[in-house]
Structure to design on (223 residues):
């Protein structure tokens, strides 16, 4: 399974944009890039995913490098509720879509 | 209740006992998954199922047994619990044509 590398922790100020990086240099052509987040004492929740093109949804944006070896999750205006562990995951559609979680980035948001 | 539920939410058991964690989803999702999360770590996949009566091992299957006789239920059994199985267990489900996994609230299991 292809691996991802993320910083262990990041800090942000409330109402400022946050860029969460992820490296995945061994990504294969069939791997989708997924982001999940886990709020304290809860199960993970889906944030966004993409294959090659940049993606936007109501929660965040995903910027994918042209060579697909890295990506960045962008929270446009961080709120206190965005404090969570963010996981960047490569999902292979050929393996039942199972997710292999890494360590994730713990995001703290300061008021 | 609609969605994905897990029971019990908290469980304390003794070493050597058998314990079953239940997972139920109301969406008729074909895929279901079991993960464990240890303190300070990400989630690790234990078992997953693509449909009723179809299961497959994940990263850490040893010491666990699963079954899936009905689409909506995916119980996880620890046949002889060990202290190393103290963890938070999350169940998840996903529709066959979907990309998003939906996670349950978790079961915190302590083995003494």
């Amino acid at each position: 399974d292809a691996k991802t590398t993320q910083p262990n922790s990041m800090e942000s100020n409330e109402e400022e944009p946050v860029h969460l990086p992820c490296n995945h240099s061994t990504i294969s052509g069939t791997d989708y890039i997924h982001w999940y987040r886990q709020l304290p004492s809860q199960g993970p929740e889906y944030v966004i995913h993409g294959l090659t093109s940049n993606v936007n949804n109501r929660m965040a944006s995903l910027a994918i490098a042209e060579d697909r070896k890295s990506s960045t999750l962008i929270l446009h205006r961080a709120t206190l509720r965005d404090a969570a562990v963010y996981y960047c995951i490569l999902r292979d559609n050929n393996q039942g879509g199972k997710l292999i979680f890494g360590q994730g980035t713990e995001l703290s948001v300061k008021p | 209740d609609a969605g994905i539920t897990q029971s019990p939410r908290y469980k304390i058991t003794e070493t050597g006992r058998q314990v079953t964690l239940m997972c139920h989803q109301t969406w008729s999702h074909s895929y279901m998954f079991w993960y464990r999360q240890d303190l300070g770590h990400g989630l690790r996949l234990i078992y997953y199922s693509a449909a009723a009566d179809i299961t497959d091992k994940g990263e850490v299957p040893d010491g666990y047994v699963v079954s899936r006789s009905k689409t909506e239920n995916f119980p996880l059994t620890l046949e002889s619990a060990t202290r190393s199985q103290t963890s938070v267990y999350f169940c998840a489900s996903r529709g066959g044509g979907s990309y998003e996994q939906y996670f349950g609230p978790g079961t915190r299991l302590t083995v003494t």
About this structure: DSSP finds no helices and eleven strands in chain B. The mean pLDDT of chain B is 94. The first strand of chain B starts at residue 4 and ends at 7. Chain B touches chain A through 24 residues (CB under 8 Å).
